[in-house]
Amino acid sequence: MVCRLNKSLYGLKQAPRAWYSRFATFLVTLGFTEAKSDTSLFVYHHGDETAYLLLYVDDIVLTASSQHLLQRIITFLQQEFAMKDLGVLHHFLGVTVEPRPSGLLLHQRQYTLDILERAGMTDCNPCSTPVDTQAKLSEDVGTPVADPTAYRNLAAPTHSDYGLLLHRSSSAVLVVYTDADWAGCPDTRRSTSGYAVFLGGNLVSWSSKRQPVVSRSSAEAEYRAVANGVAEASWLRQLLAELHSPLAKSTLVYCDNVSAVYLSTNPVQHQRTKHVEIDLHFVRDRVAIDDVRILHVPTTSQFADIFTKGLPSSTFSEFRSSLNIHRG
Question: Reverse transcriptase Ty1/copia-type domain spans which residues (predicted)?
Answer without folding.
Answer: 2-131
